[in-house]
Every structure is written in C-alpha cells, then in structure tokens.
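Attaching the record inline, Q. Sequence:
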Amino acid sequence: MPHRQEGARVAHGFPHRAAVGDSVTALYRRLSPDGVQRYPASVLAADVALGDDEDLHLGTQRVARALVRHLRLPEARMVVSFRPMEHAAAVELAAGPEYFVELNDRFRTRRRDIGAALAHEITHVLLHRLGLGFPGAAENEILTDVVTTYLGAGWLLLDAFRQDGVESQKLGYLTPEEFGYVLAKRAEVFGEDPSPWFTSDVAYEAWVRGRAEADRERTPPPLAGAGWA
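Structure, as predicted:
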C-alpha cells in the first residue's frame, strides 16, 4: 500500500474523527480488549533508530525486525529496499512468509524517519494477516495509522512531522492532531506519557492539541445533568 508523504501544505484538525472512531472500534472487535492489552508498552526509540555509522541496509532490516516483534507478527520476514518513488513507502501483501517493503530513496539520508515509514507498512502486514480492513482505500489507510498508533508504534509517525526552515514533512494519512488524539486514547488505557519521546517541536504541539481534544471528550458539558430550569 502506498504511504503518502506531504509537503508544505498539511491538513490540521480532526476531519477524520468518524473514521478514527470506527477504526478503534474495529480493532477492539477483531483483537478483543484482552488482545489489545498484549501491547502494553510502546516501541522504544532506541530499538528503531539507525546510528550514523550503521550500515543502511543492515540497520533497516534490524529496525524492521524490531517492529515485527513489537507488533507480534509471527514468521514475518521483511525484505526492505530503497528506490525512487512518489510515495514514502509501499508494501507487497501476499501470503508470506516474506514481505517486500520499498522505501523512498530520500530515506537514505533521512535515517531518523525509517522507523516511522516501516511502522505504517508493517502494520499493513498485521492487518492483512488479521483480515481486518474497510472497503475504501482511504479508510484502510486511516485504519492503518490508527492501529499503528494504538498498538504503540505510531508515535514515530507523528514525530516524523516537521515544518521549519530546513524541511517540511508529514507521514501518514491522519492529521498531526489526530495522531495526537489517538496517542491520548492509548495513553488513557496504558498509562503512558509519550511527551518525552518527541524530537519534533511541531509534533509535540500536535500531541498536546490531540490530548486536549481527548480530554474535552471526557469532560461532560456544563449543566449536562441539570434539569431544564
């Protein structure tokens, strides 16, 4: 599946609220609450970071294996390659046991975002194995972002969001605030605080806005329990 990349113009807010809610519901129905509880800790930054002196291909394979383990995918071997392409990444879905992931050539020099791109694509593999999907392509991509985030790897996608004088980039199909919102929903369940993980200032700000929206949902409106008088 293609994994969209964004330029300077990035959508904000919560335009996919209904699809996000449907995705969380579908995840719980497929895995059950007990199944979701098998993902109590988010993936560690150290496990999915490539060192500057690390071999690109060997390091990418290592990160892919770490994400396969995190997402509890059995016997899923990822073969990762780089090539010029329009999208950020793509995965070939088949019966396995090997899955072929292609990453945009730009990640050769943007190693810090390889884990984010792989997280989305490897979640596609998880959803394929679970038989979990929606009829529309756009809804399926939103589902993939939501599941990646809710199961503890999607904070990488939000942290790949950057807008400054040097570069502008956003990975994934959710808005930055929607990533923050799903992270907040996960944090409610598992008691995590993703705040220290962000290296991108704009990603952190999006997390704060998403958390505020999740908090607002939990707060009943004034006088909600009062009579008409």
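Residues 17-36 form the longest helix (20 residues). The CA atoms of residues 153 and 227 lie 45 Å apart.

More tomorrow.
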